[in-house]
Structure formats: C-alpha cells, structure tokens
Specification:
This protein is mostly helical and about 525 residues long. The chain has 21 helices and 2 strands.
C-alpha cells in the first residue's frame, strides 16, 4: 500500500472539514468579529491578556493540546490493532468529534467571559454538575501530569542530546516574551530571534549531551512546572508554547516532504486482530489513540487559557477547529511512521515489551526523512516530541491550579500549585507510565464526552440545535465508560490498588454527571413541549 494515497485522502477530507463543516459550526454559534472578547473586557495582566497576533495564540494553543498524545497513542494503536482502524478513527474522530469539541469548548468559554468548562457546567446544568465535572477533570489532569513527566524524563535519559534544547528553550522563551510584551519589538523580529536561539540550542545539544538519572530529571521537570504555573501567562507559558509550535511545524513539514520524496510502501498488515493485550478494538483503540482524534484535555486548554487570550471571535475557527485538524495530521504522520517500520505477519504487540512508543516513532520518522535530515531524523523527532510533552506539562499544571483554587477554596496560587506537584510526582516516581496510560486515555476521552454534554446543554439553554454535539457526546460516553470499566476490572484482578481506586472513582463521577445532564435535558425539553 502506497502511503501517499492515505495521506492525500486524509488531507482532502480535512480540507473539506475546515471549509464546509466548520463553517456550519460558525453559523450555529453566530460568530461575530465585532463582539468584545474576555481578553479585553477582563484584562488583568496575569491570565486575561490579548495575544499579540492570532498566530502567537495558535502556537500556544496547538503546542498545549498536541503534547505527546497524538504520537504515542496512535503508535500504540497501530502496533496492537493495525494501521487501518487507527487511520479511520483519527480522520473521522477529528472531523466530527474532536474538531466540534474544540470549537465548541472555545466559543462557549469566550461567550461566558473566559469561564472554565466546569463553571459553564454550573450555568448550563447545575452547581452539582460543576463540582462533579471539576473533580473528574482534576483527577484526569493529575494522571496527565504524572504520565508526561515520566515520559519526558525517560527521553532525557535515553537521548541526552535533547536536554539542552528542551530546557534551554525556557530562558529563550522568557526573553521572547519580554521582547513581545514589554519592549514592544516587532513580532516577526522577536520570532526570528527565538528561532535562531532554538536552532543554536539544537546544535549545541547534539554536541553536548547532558546525562543524569530519570529521578533527577523528574524532579527538575516538576520544579519547572511549578514556576510555569505561577508566573503570568505572557512571561513564559505563551512564548514557550509559541516557539515550540515551530518545532512541530518543522517536524511535520519534514515528515510529509519525506513521504513525498521517498514514497514508502506500507508492508505491515492493515489489521491485526480484534483482541489485543490491552483489550478489544472497541472500546480500547478509541481511548488508546486519545488526543489523535479527540481529547477532553483540549476543552481545558480552550476554556482555561486560550479563551482568555483570543482577541477576536473570528479566530475561533482557526485556533479551535484548525488546531484539531493540525493535530490529526500529526497523528496520521505517527501512524505512517510506525506502519512503514514493520512488515510481515507476527505478534507486533511484543514490540512494546522492549521499545517505547517514542523510540518507535523516532525510528520511523528517521526512516521517512532520511533524504532530508540524514541520520539526524530520530534525534530531531524526539527533540520535537519532548518539547511538546513539556508544553502539556506546564499548561496542565496551570489549569490544575485553577481547579484546585475553585474546588478546595485555596486562595494562594503558590500553595495550590505545590499540592498538584506533590500528588502528580508521587505517581510519576512510581515509574508505571505504561499502566497509567490506559486509564489516562479513558479518563481523557470521558472528559471530552462530558465537555460535549456541557456544550449540548449550553446550546439547549440558548434554544439552538444540539445535533452537532449530542450524538458525538453519547458515542464517546458509552465507548470510554465501557473502556474504563474493563480497565478497572483488570486493575482489580492484578491487585493494583491505586489505579483500581482511581478508575472506580472516575466511573462513579461520570455516572453522576451523566444523570445531571440527562435530567437537565429532559426538564428543558418538557418545559418547551
């Protein structure tokens, strides 16, 4: 099978989605470029700050939502079930569920003054729904931070050449943020400065690898997350994510150019089996692919940071729906990179016993881009991936801080951040990332389902149709809740007390939230009857 045929079909479908389907969403929400956004109406120089340019905000948003999810999840799915079901879910999920979820989360937050999706749940459903949703999201974010901190530290150990460009980008981002917002330097010049520094860091990182233990790196990462959470968003978070986005654009560009030049054939069978070591294709594949098709984490980014920085409603389609389509392209590249690496008929799942998904992606990407990057392909791939893991870490910690302050009435942002760091670190230091990933995937997808239910109720409260959001919400809810129940049974059987308890708590919270939503929809339907 020629990989270019798959890529061309996916790009054409994504183009149709952006030009046609996303326009329907704009009509549904009646996008108005003249309506003031929270970045201006609630400006506070800390969280509510209009982005210098919509591209700067796209960079922050895309870097934050991408992370390692659209690479690690699809790689695992290809290995366990085959590249064909993974491709189908990424394309269809991105267009009809993920893009709708991201667009809807962003626009309703903008319309509600930059409120979080949890706060909107209170207004659209009930106060009880807000508490349930917040607790669910808070637990899911703990898992996100723990998993990605361990994976990032693990890549530092296995590829010490990426340490300098990954951590060195932090002070560079602070300087770029100063140039953009304090010195009022032209955004193009500030960007060029940042990118030149980034290229230098990659060069010196390759020459000067930094070695340390995984536990030291985990500690360093959590220290970084602490400061990223408490500093004003335009000092570190926004410029670092903005610069990181250029890395991914460069990587994706090299990957797709490499596909055009090399035209690799896929020798791996398109479909392996229904049942794998991690469960059945349905529902396990859908939660394993995670961010590559739809992600509840995106609703937290959209309503947690992006909605507070967007300068014009006209940019919602570009940043919300467009950002999800771009992430879908990254997921497709990860699928192709994995599929061209292996061939023949064998037990592919055994590969994961000896190699991490990051290793597999690096090797596959290196194979595809050999004509462009030579032998540096795997190094560049892991550098890019690790940069995005860091963006997920810092943004997730910041949003967790918001939720902790709301849930536990903690007024001090330094203490609330410390609480998040302590709990996440205890899971990360356990070293069980491969056991945490499935429950992270399921909880993340359930957050997406619950967010779509909240968006549906918001639309209902405004007397608008729910057909674009309610059916995807029900599909995601049934699929991911089933996956979480099966995982909980497996954890219980293996006597994993911690993950069993987390899974059971998430199932209970999801059940209560679904009840609140269904009761609200029934009550409002009856009222309008």
């Amino acid at each position: 099978m020629n990989s270019l045929i798959i890529v061309a079909a996916a790009i054409l479908l994504f183009l149709w989605a952006y030009l046609v389907y996303a326009r329907k969403l704009e009509s549904l929400w009646q996008i108005d470029s003249k309506r003031s956004t929270p970045a201006y109406s609630k400006y506070d120089s800390l969280d509510y700050i209009p982005a210098k340019n919509w591209l700067v905000l796209f960079g922050h948003h895309f870097a934050s939502i991408a992370g390692a999810g659209p690479i690690i999840g699809p790689v695992i799915a290809v290995i366990l079930w085959g590249w064909l079901p993974a491709i189908f879910w990424v394309v269809l999920g991105t267009i009809f569920i993920g893009g709708v979820h991201d667009f809807g989360s962003l626009i309703i937050s903008v319309r509600e003054g930059g409120s979080s999706i949890a706060d909107i749940a209170q207004n659209a459903i009930s106060k009880k729904a807000k508490i349930i949703f917040s607790l669910f999201v808070w637990l899911a974010l703990i898992l996100v931070i723990a998993v990605f901190a361990y994976l990032c530290a693990d890549t530092f150990v296995k590829e010490p050449r990426i340490v300098l460009p990954s951590l060195g980008l932090i002070p560079v981002a602070v300087i770029v943020g100063y140039l953009l917002y304090q010195a009022k330097v032209n955004s193009v010049l500030a960007t060029i400065f940042g990118l030149v520094c980034l290229v230098d860091l990659i060069f010196w990182g390759n020459a000067l690898p930094i070695h340390n233990s995984i536990w030291i790196w985990i500690a360093v990462l959590f220290i970084y997350c602490y400061f990223a959470s408490v500093l004003p968003v335009n000092i570190l978070l926004q410029p670092r994510d903005y610069l990181s986005s250029f890395l991914l654009f460069f990587g994706a560009g090299c990957g797709y150019l490499g596909l055009i030049l090399s035209r690799p054939k896929i020798n791996m069978p398109p479909y392996h089996r229904w049942a794998s070591s991690e469960g059945y294709l349905w529902p396990a594949l859908f939660v394993t692919v995670a961010c590559g098709a739809v992600s509840g984490f995106h609703s937290l980014i959209a309503s947690g940071t992006t909605s507070k920085q967007i300068a014009n409603e006209r940019h919602v389609k570009r940043i919300g729906y467009g950002g999800m389509l771009t992430e879908g392209l990254v997921a497709i590249l990860a699928i192709i990179s994995t599929a061209v690496l292996f061939g023949g008929k064998k037990d592919f799942s055994a590969i994961l016993n000896n190699r991490t998904p990051i290793d597999i992606f690096g090797d596959g990407f290196g194979l595809i881009t050999r004509r462009i990057l030579g032998n540096f392909g795997p190094f560049i791939a892991i550098t890019i991936l690790n940069s995005f893991i860091l963006t997920t870490l810092d943004t997730a910690t910041r949003i967790s801080r918001y939720l902790s302050e709301e849930l536990f009435k903690i007024k001090n942002r330094y203490f609330s951040t410390l609480l998040i760091i302590a709990i996440s670190a205890s899971l990360a230091f356990s070293g069980k990332w491969n056991k945490i990933w499935p429950v992270f995937g399921a909880s993340n997808q359930l957050v997406a389902a619950l967010a779509l239910l909240v968006i549906s109720c918001w639309l209902l409260s405004k007397d608008k149709t729910m057909k674009f959001t309610l059916w995807p919400a029900l599909f995601m809810f049934i699929t991911t809740l089933t996956a979480l129940v099966l995982q909980a049974a497996r954890y219980f059987k293996n006597k994993d007390v911690t993950l069993s308890a987390i899974s059971i708590i998430l199932i209970i919270l999801a059940g209560f939230m679904a009840y609140e939503v269904m009761f609200t929809i029934f009550k409002r339907r009856k009222k309008h009857a």
